[in-house]
Amino acid sequence: MSVDVAALYDEGFGIRSVAEEIGRSYSTARRRLLAAGVKLRPSGGRPLEPDPVAEYLADLYEQRGLSIRAIQTRTGYSYQFIWARLHAAGVQMRDRHGQPRKRVAR
Fold it and tell me: What Cα–Cα distance (Å) separates residue 10 from each residue in 42, 52, 61, 95, 104?
């Protein structure tokens, strides 16, 4: 019985899940997906959308000038959670000295 790896991936399975379904390694599953002509999704899951929490954290960071560590202490959210929400809200990050970070060309 041959498993349609492309169909599994299109159903929302990740490469690791496809690998488990076919009983093969991650690299084998990835090669089979590419051979089937599947356009792979970007890693890291879905991008975050701005939400009320992101807007609140952005206000603390931009308007009140709090650092991520200060926001972490104030809210109890993890550093990574705050960082991800600030990026989702489109906030320009500061360096250690409070200066805006230069944007990296992509």
Answer: 14, 31, 39, 40, 32
